[in-house]
Every structure is written in structure tokens, then in C-alpha cells.
Design goal:
Blueprint lengths: L3 E5 L23 H11 L4 E6 L1 H14 L12 E6 L22 H6 L9 E5 L2 E2 L2 H13 L6 E8 L10 E8 L5 E12 L5 E5 L5 E3 L5 E9 L3 H16 L9 H11 L3 E7 L4 E2 L6 H13 L10
Parallel strand pairs: 1-2, 1-4, 2-3, 6-12
Antiparallel strand pairs: 4-11, 5-13, 6-11, 7-8, 7-11, 8-9, 9-10
Helix pairs in contact: 1-4, 5-6
Length: 311
């Protein structure tokens, strides 16, 4: 069994000012998604599902067909690609019509639900504009294969907080809490996280508003998840409950941590926390781009990745 990689790429252009999905940041014009797919293939993934918006779906499909035409899985088979769209009105019909002033779709957990008809095996979820590192994909691929033919089993890849900080300012991170068996018990959102002049990591807890000292080695979420396919049905029911309360709201969104928390609380699933030694980096705003370009150049010069990535 080869697990599937689901790439969240529907909302990537809003803050960046363009289609980050197609922005070449590698030495030979590679995108961040290119590196994720390269690492996922080496980790044994066999299919890639893109969640995109209808307005750029055709351009993405064309680019993918050209770039990955000769890419093979570890078994020598062609790598499979599927494109699914996330749109505001792709919800149960009984909740239509919506508030006519709402513009954005319903968030990351809604995006995952768009793939429920094309994924029937354990799968991973990643952001399209984040670099996670080869070791993270190996850890996640191993977990997916281990949980073939099981249900109610989920995981989150946790990155050490200090490996996710920005050199250009503060960041927001969800810090994982878990029990002695590394089962997720919650994700505590913190904002304005940075190192002070003494090298101590600090941030603001969004629940109580307190400014707190944080453990640099604490595991935090960078939206890298693993799921058994029963997640679709369970999160779909939770989404309907969410819409019962929020279908006419302008900005409320249905996020993956919210769905996972509700499933775990109901006793229908459990979520492992998997620690990775990889260093995360990504592009959120245009100002982040030069640093990311420099990091990929360094990785190519050290031989971590071939250049070009796809000859």
C-alpha cells in the first residue's frame, strides 16, 4: 500500500499577492511543492491530491503534467495526480444559500473534505507553501503504512518550536500538548512568538492573553497531519454541526485541529504526536522569499537535493 499526499493549495495566494503554488524559489525554478513531492515520493507515497480553487485549476494541472511527467514512485510506477476544488458553496445543500457577502471558503478541514471521493487509503495532509524536510515525510509515510486497514487513527508531525522561528519577526504557532504515550490532548495557540535578547523564546497565549516563556524544544503544529480514511465521515458530521451555527457567518472557518479535537473528545479516534528533527521554513509574505531562496540554494550546494530537482 502506498499512502496519498494531500496538498492544501486553495488559499495560498491571498496574502502573498500571487500564486505561491507556482513561484520558483529553488536554484532551477523549483517550487516549494516540488520539494515536498520529491521528499514524499522517496518516502513511499504513490498519489498526490491537490486542493485548489477553480480559477487556477487549469494552470496548475498543466504545470504538473509538464513537470512531473516522468516522475516514478519507489516501485517504478507513474506518480498519480488528482485535482479537487474547494469552493465556498461546496457544502451540504441544506445550508444553501449562504450569506451573499461571504467570499472565502470554509478553512483547512473543509478543504480536506473535498477529497473524500478520491482518497480511500491512509493519507497525509500538508500546506503547499511550507517546507517540511525529507525526514518528516519519512516519519509520516511510515506511520501511514503502519495504519493500513485501521480506523480512528490520526497523527500530527510536531516540529521543535525553535526550528520554526522566523529571522524576520514574530510568528504564531499551535503548541501541542500530549500524554505520556504521545497522544495529542490539545493544541494551544500562541502569537507574537520570538526569541528575546537573551535567546529565550517568548509568546502570548491566546486563551488567557498572558505573555509566557516557551520551551524552545516544545513540539508545535505546522499543519502536517496523517489520517486513516474514516476521518472523512467523522469530520463531515462535525462540519455539519459547525454549519448549523455558522453558515451565515462571514469569516468563521472550519480548521483541522478543531475537527481532530472533536473526534478525539468523542472517543472515535486518537491522534499520535510524531516528533521530527527537521527544520521548517516557508513563504507567507513576499518579504520571506529571499530567505527561502537562499535556503534552497544552500541545500542544493550541500547535495541534499539535486539541481535541477526534476531533470
Amino acid at each position: 500500500m502506498k499512502p496519498t499526499l494531500l496538498v492544501l493549495a486553495a488559499g495560498m495566494g491571498s496574502r502573498y499577492g500571487g500564486l505561491k503554488q507556482m513561484d520558483g524559489v529553488g536554484p532551477s525554478g523549483e517550487t516549494i511543492i516540488d520539494y515536498s513531492i520529491h521528499d514524499a515520493v522517496k518516502a513511499g507515497f504513490g498519489k498526490v491530491v491537490y486542493i485548489v480553487r477553480e480559477y487556477f485549476k487549469a494552470d496548475m494541472e498543466k504545470a504538473v503534467k509538464e513537470k512531473y511527467a516522468h516522475v516514478k514512485t519507489i516501485d517504478g510506477e507513474p506518480l498519480e495526480f488528482v485535482f479537487v476544488t474547494q469552493e465556498l458553496n461546496k457544502i451540504p445543500e441544506r445550508f444553501l444559500p449562504l450569506n451573499p457577502d461571504r467570499q472565502k471558503p470554509w478553512g483547512t478541514a473543509h478543504a480536506v473534505l473535498m477529497a473524500r471521493d478520491v482518497i480511500h487509503e491512509p493519507f497525509a495532509v500538508i500546506n503547499g507553501d511550507d517546507f517540511y524536510g525529507a525526514e518528516s515525510f519519512r516519519i509520516l509515510g511510515d506511520w501511514c503504512r503502519k495504519h493500513e486497514n485501521t480506523s480512528g487513527q490520526y497523527c500530527i508531525v510536531g516540529f521543535e518550536l525553535e526550528n520554526t522561528l522566523s529571522e524576520n519577526g514574530s510568528v504564531s504557532r499551535g503548541i501541542c500538548t500530549y500524554d505520556e504515550n504521545f497522544r495529542l490532548t490539545g493544541i494551544a495557540e500562541h502569537v507574537e512568538i520570538s526569541k528575546n535578547d537573551k535567546g529565550i523564546v517568548e509568546g502570548d497565549n491566546t486563551v488567557n492573553g498572558q505573555h509566557v516563556t516557551l520551551d524552545a524544544k516544545a513540539l508545535c503544529s505546522m499543519n502536517m497531519w496523517g489520517f486513516t480514511p474514516d476521518y472523512f465521515a467523522l469530520s463531515g458530521k462535525i462540519f455539519e454541526g459547525f454549519l448549523e451555527e455558522n453558515s451565515m457567518q462571514l469569516k468563521k472557518e472550519f480548521y483541522i485541529p478543531f475537527a481532530v479535537d472533536r473526534i478525539v473528545a468523542s472517543g472515535n479516534g486518537a491522534c499520535d504526536v510524531l516528533a521530527t528533527p527537521s527544520r521548517w521554513f516557508g513563504v507567507t509574505y513576499q518579504a520571506d522569499r529571499p530567505g527561502v531562496v537562499a535556503k534552497f540554494k544552500e541545500l542544493a550546494e550541500k547535495g541534499v537535493y539535486p539541481s535541477p530537482l526534476y531533470a
